[in-house]
Amino acid sequence: MVRMYSLKNAAVYLFLLKFGAALAAAPACAQTPTALAEEPAGVLTLARASAAALARSPALEGFSWELRASEARVLQAGLRPNPNLDAEIEDVAGTGPFSGTDQAQTTLLLSQMFELGGKRAARRDAAAAGRDLTEREYEIKRVDVLADVAEKFITLLVMQNEVALTRETTVLAKAALATARRRVRAGTASAIEEKNALVAVSRHRINEEHADHELAVARARMAATWASTSPAFERAEGPLFHVVPVATFEELATRLAAAPEQVRWAAQQQLRAAEARLAHIRRIPNVTLGAGVRRYEGSDDSAFVFGLTLPLPLADRNQGRRAETKAREQISAADGRAAGIRLHTALFAFYQELVHAATTLGSLESEIVPLASSALDLAEQGFRGGRLSYLELLDAQRTFVDVRRERIEVAATYQRLLLGIERLLGTPVHSTSMTAAQDSSEAITSHQQLVLGMQQRLRQSTDNAGTALGSEKGNSQ
């Protein structure tokens, strides 16, 4: 049997669990209400960003007041009508013996209307159903805020990786420039090669400067989710390239019944049904009972007075309202069925694209990026040894940079698709029935080895560039 997750639970861990240890990485103080309202500083994790957005997001402020209004409507719907006090004076200011007040009749009557047919309870049930619908919409809004935070967090991680990549590319271009100058001095290459290398360095510096601006925009948009105009955090940390085990499509499709949108439609159908019941009950007339006392001035006597008021339902004056509520109930049911089909189709599309993104990312990390790195190593060695031209080295550098940038883009696409599925389901998509995938520590170690190898190669290229520049400076002196 599929476990039915509540929206409140989904709002707590919906997107936080997607990054594995994000909650564990958050400081303990982030769990206190005071800390939730503070501006995130230092290292920003998804858990801290989500907590700050939930505590400070302007998009949620209006919903909190709407919830209070819905509670007030429930209170108002359960109130009973107040009694009426009627005062009446008869047989005064007439003619003859009724010219004064000697023959006046004074009546005081206290009456109370009683609602029959359970109108008060039905009215309260309808208001409570409206409150439940508001709560469901509030939870969906909270999930939307968390989804927006996760989306901007992914973008921030992408831009941080893009800035690092552009800087490494500039280092590669400078190393190639130093080698080109050395080849030109040795007479093994033309001056055009050096000019092309200078152009490449300048273009990479422009790209680096542009990436810095894009990162600043991503930081500002991230801070805007918690209503801040000046980011105080240093950097964002999160496993952008982590691939999680995902349940099968059939298993995920069974969770759609508890999806936030489906729960909202169920709440709306309950509201329409409650409104229809209330409209049906209102056909029953209310009765008003009264009791009082009457004073006869002429005979100096008094007597009790009793009254009963009962409308005669000769014609149904509420048939239009009943027909309207029944029609709205059917509309809500039809819209709910259409939403179910739409969610199922969207989930299928997300899942197919997610599988493709995971396959592509795996190929990039295990085959394409290492091959491009090896090709660049060979091209650099051949260029330094004079066996390859600068254009061949430039082509190897471009391929290496392109596949690394593609890796970043595919990883971001994978995380966004995963985010889209979790947004639909309202629950994490981690599989509990699948066999354990490759240990994440082994994957990280393998990736670290690749990065360390690239860093070693970059340091070697930089050292060669520094040696060449030093030689050039010594020759000029």
User: Gyration radius, to the nearest Å?
Assistant: 38 Å
Order of helices and strands: HHHEHHEEHHEHHEEHHH
Helix content: 55-70%
Number of strands: 6
* CATH fold-level label: Outer membrane efflux proteins (OEP)
Number of helices: 12
CATH superfamily: Outer membrane efflux proteins (OEP)
> Which structural class should the secondary elements be placed in?
alpha+beta
Proportion of beta-strand residues? 5-15%
Spatial strand sequence of the major β-sheet? 2-3-5-6
Largest sheet: 4 strands, antiparallel
Alpha-carbon distance between the termini? 82 Å
**What's the CATH first level?**
Mainly Alpha
List the domain count as a whole number.
Answer: 1
Question: In the CATH hierarchy, what is the architecture at level 2?
Answer: Up-down Bundle
Average pLDDT over all residues: 81
Shape: elongated
Unreliable sequence segments? 1-36, 431-477
Features:
477 residues, alpha+beta, Outer membrane efflux proteins (OEP), 4-stranded antiparallel β-sheet, two-stranded parallel sheet, 12 helices, 9% strand, disordered C terminus
What does this molecule look like?
The chain is an alpha+beta fold and 477 residues long. It has a single domain (7-311, 339-476), classed as Outer membrane efflux proteins (OEP). 66% of the residues lie in helices and 9% in strands. It contains 12 helices and 6 strands. The chain has helices at residues 7-13, 22-25, 33-36, 46-56, 58-77, 119-186, 191-224, 249-253, 260-281, 319-384, 390-425, 440-476; strands at residues 42-44, 84-90, 105-114, 233-236, 287-296, 301-309. The strands form 2 sheets. Strands 2-3-5-6 form a 4-stranded antiparallel β-sheet, with no helix packed on it. The chain has a two-stranded parallel sheet with strand order 1-4. Helix 1 packs parallel to helix 6 and helix 6 packs antiparallel against helix 7. The radius of gyration is 38 Å and the shape is elongated. The termini are far apart.
